[in-house]
From TrEMBL:
Keywords, ordered alphabetically: DNA-binding, Sigma factor, Transcription, Transcription regulation
Domain RNA polymerase sigma-70 region: 42-106
Pfam families documented for this protein: Sigma70_r2 (PF04542), Sigma70_r4_2 (PF08281)
Domain RNA polymerase sigma factor 70 region 4 type: 134-186
Name by which UniProt lists this protein: RNA polymerase sigma factor
Organism: Streptomyces asoensis
Family to which this protein belongs: Belongs to the sigma-70 factor family. ECF subfamily.
Disordered: annotated segments: 1-26
Matches recorded under InterPro entries: RNA_pol_sigma-70-like, RNA_pol_sigma-70_dom, RNA_pol_sigma-E_actinobac, RNA_pol_sigma70_r2, RNA_pol_sigma70_r4_t2, RNA_pol_sigma_r2, RNA_pol_sigma_r3/r4-like, WH-like_DNA-bd_sf
């Protein structure tokens, strides 16, 4: 049976080494990219970041706003950028995300804008139109049944004379006769009501 190894008792120095190593690791992680490095990267790549935003947005002012906002956001979160070499990647991704957000806001704004009101007639014109419609309906009711059918199919259903003839089962000449007589009777009835 082999002899048991004596267990080593950690010294205070070992604890200090471990604490120092943990502290150094925390400082490295907490340090992130420096303000100077971020500023230098931003200045060196400002034009390319602006060009990236221009591919996604349509006006220069919005592009400049997005790029500046990206710098501010990466600056405030610079401790998360552990590898200073990835600073430019963070800036680019932030520019893309902010551009997308700007586009979403524009689309939502366009959807929420109320549609313009159509040109509406004044109240007097609306009342006059209603009276004309009422007179026309009354005059149409006074026509013979075939005249009314021909006029409704021809002018309200927008059918050709041949289609009306086929639909009613009458000749083309009958459709023309009923139509002309119906229009003449409507004209007389409308003039009488005016």
């Amino acid at each position: 049976m082999p002899a048991a190894r004596p267990s080593r008792i950690p010294s205070q120095r070992d604890g200090a080494d471990t604490a120092e190593a943990a502290s150094a690791t925390e400082n490295t992680v907490a340090a992130g990219t420096t303000v100077d490095h971020l500023t230098e990267t931003y200045r060196a790549h400002y034009r390319s970041l602006l060009g990236l935003a221009a591919l996604l947005l349509d006006d220069t002012a919005s592009c400049e706003d997005v790029v500046q906002e990206a710098f501010i956001r990466v600056h405030s979160a610079r401790k998360r950028v552990r590898d200073p070499e990835k600073t430019l990647a963070y800036l680019r991704q932030t520019v893309v995300n902010l551009s997308r957000s700007a586009l979403r806001r524009r689309i939502l704004g366009l959807k929420l804008l109320s549609k313009p009101m159509p040109d509406m007639a004044s109240a007097e014109e609306g009342a006059y139109d209603q009276l004309e419609r009422d007179s026309l309906i009354k005059a149409m009711k006074g026509l013979q049944r075939r005249q009314r059918e021909v006029l409704v199919l021809r002018y309200f259903a927008d059918m050709t004379e041949a289609q009306v003839a086929e639909a009613l089962g009458v000749s083309l000449g009958s459709v023309k006769a009923y139509g002309s007589r119906g229009i003449a009777a409507l004209r007389i009835a409308m003039e009488a009501s005016a």
